């Protein structure tokens, strides 16, 4: 019974770490919008996502190797890193709530400055075209932001809204789904920590039963 439980926990934890690897792919998809924010050159959205993606890869590696090799040291390292990430997420959520107004100003300023690079930077052009096509918006506050000519990705019409307002409305209308996704991510992290501790204890019990 003990060996069966150990194998089950091992492969369940391995499966959970595959989810972490998949999340790195989604981070790479979001990374293309990092070019729009150059207010802080050393702390762009792209750099932050690269750092986060690297940390997730390290955590997932520790979890996978710890579960397959039944290595207690790797499992505890996995647990500690997951705990640190969870605490960092809670801290970030609090900071975003406290500095919400400054964040809005940063986003508006970053979007406005990026318009100037639309014709000179292909990455910025692709990011703006994606946003305007998806949200059916134009510019930051409207078509008047495009002084050098309205891009083809802007929808036609005299009542087209700016992307800043449309983005806020999109977040408000999808707030429930964003909240559910955030909660699911936290639950997965807590489950990963629980499975790591349980597997660690199960390894001890199995070793004692075998007289190792």
Automatic annotation (TrEMBL):
Q: Name the InterPro entries on file.
A: Tetraspanin/Peripherin (IPR018499), Tetraspanin_animals (IPR000301), Tetraspanin_CS (IPR018503), Tetraspanin_EC2_sf (IPR008952)
In terms of Pfam families, this protein maps to:
Tetraspanin
Which positions, given as ranges, span the membrane?
12-30, 42-62, 74-99, 175-199
Note whether Protein biosynthesis occurs among the keywords: no
Of the GO CC terms on this record, one is: plasma membrane
Q: Which UniProt keywords apply?
A: Cell junction, Cell membrane, Disulfide bond, Glycoprotein, Membrane, Transmembrane, Transmembrane helix
Stored Gene3D superfamilies: Tetraspanin
Query: Which SUPFAM superfamilies does this UniProt record tie to the protein?
Result: Tetraspanin
Q: Kindly list the places in or outside the cell where this protein is found, as annotated in its UniProt entry.
A: Cell junction; Cell membrane; Membrane
Q: List the disulfide bonds.
A: 138-154
Primary location class: other
Quick check: keyword Cell membrane in the entry?
yes
User: Which top-level group of life is the source organism from?
Assistant: Eukaryota
Q: Which residues form a coiled coil?
A: none
Topology within the bilayer? Multi-pass membrane protein
Q: Which family does it belong to?
A: Belongs to the tetraspanin (TM4SF) family.
Assembly, per entry? Interacts with SCIMP. Interacts with CD45/PTPRC. Interacts with IL7R. Interacts with RBL2 and PPP2CA.
- Report the protein name in the record: Tetraspanin
Write down the species.
Capra hircus (Goat)
